[in-house]
Amino acid sequence: MIAFAALAGPLPKVGVIVVALLAAAVMMAREDTGRAWAMLGALVLAAALLLADIWDSPRLSSVHRDPLEAGLGAAVALLALGALTTAIARRPRLLGPLAALTLPFRIPITVGGHASNLLVPLYFVIGAACLAWALPVVFGYRAGAGPPMAGPGQQRSPIRLQHGPLRFEQLLGGYLVLYAIQAIYSVDFVTALQNMVFFYVPFALLLALLRDLDWDRELLIRCLQVTVALAIVFACIAFVEEATKSVFLNVKVEETNASHPYFVVNSVFYDPDIFGRYLALVMILVAALLLHTRGRRLPLGLTAVLAILWAALVLSLSRSGLVSLLVGLGTLAALRWRLRPVLAAAAAVVVLGAAVVALTPGTFGITHGLNNASSGRAGLVSGGLRMFGDRPLWGYGSGAFEAEYEAQHPGSCTQVCASHTIPITVAAEQGIIGLVAYFALVIAALVTLVRNAQADPARAAIAAAFIALLVNTVLYADFLEDPVTWTLLAIGGALASQHAAERHAAQRESRRRGAVAPN
Description:
- By secondary structure, the chain is mainly α.
- It has 22 helices and two strands.
- Among the domains are: 2-205, no CATH class; 218-362, no CATH class.
- A two-stranded antiparallel ribbon has the order 1-2.
- Helix 2 (12-28) packs antiparallel against helix 3 (32-54) and helix 5 packs across helix 7.
- The chain is globular, with a radius of gyration of 24 Å.
């Protein structure tokens, strides 16, 4: 307790490094006991760092004012957490559908007059799953009963235990530690801390837990069913928004709709572009299933789903979502057939799009300047490049983009201030050091997900969705800050490991048969 208090109080920067090391250890550990302690330590320390950061802020004024009420609320939450922990411990495969169910929900919470959109349901599921996995290890599970988070007759990730973490997992763990180290000299350490405790640490735990599940056809289909059902519900909400000309959650979207001739929907998402990205990724997964489906009834149903989601995507007016969808579908086509025709079609689309923009620049707002047409993002890109030029080696520190951009361009953040291009963000905040780590991670992930994915519809779907998400991060934002990234990596890594293990087993069997064959 003294160590946690010191790391969360007098030494928060050391605490961020320690919690990053613990999260990395969870992903890379091959031994149960060390992994369990690292998991529990990451949970406790992340919570301690967050509470230490906001304890004296207006966000917790109600807790200071009514501690009894806050305590009762915490007790109820703990009881619910215990119930969910028990359910996941008994049926570990629940984690997959529960994660798919809670991934998109960011709950707006107003405390002390400040509003935040937090992934509260997902945090709840991650916490319960971590307890369900780690507590049996810490307290000793019964000999012969099997490892934690494993059902009857199952073993916990034997592939992982034999071969250790994948290359991208090693690089991902290293990137988390690098991010924490570069937070030390950041001009906005608070943002770096919040990124670590709200995103990187819990999502690293989620990746490690999902990676250990047995991703067979049944579990994959169940998670896809949950995801598609959610997307259809979100699309229907968007249709209601369009019919009533009213939006939820975001006052800025209402103001934009009031001042423009077009109407933008955002469904249950705070930002229409986040809504568009979610729809695009789900459509890619559905399209992958459609490409490998025979018969009549199921293809007709999948086509109807694609039509519904496409209509909602158009209403969102998410340009980044549309581009991501095209790239994802192109990737599916390249994996399903050949690359050359896909590249030719992509080139034709680019030429046609450029011609349309050149002939009707007013439709796209180009006549008012590229910065205006991109809602201020062109200025952010040029400003980020200048920041990178000022400190090319180590940057301004993790999480520092917004604060430093505002300092260099006072009063310029009238539309957006956060960088909407992840490589530019990494370059400005972490310099060449961070860029090398970032590109190494991306390349390793792509190699793992794409290699030998042509024959497996599930792997092709994951690879196409991940590539589409990468393209989206160049046009919008959020790479490691999005739990979908970590989920795709977890499932794709697990499927890649299973494929490699099956291939090696087949090769060993072939060599064995060759050795015993009569001469």
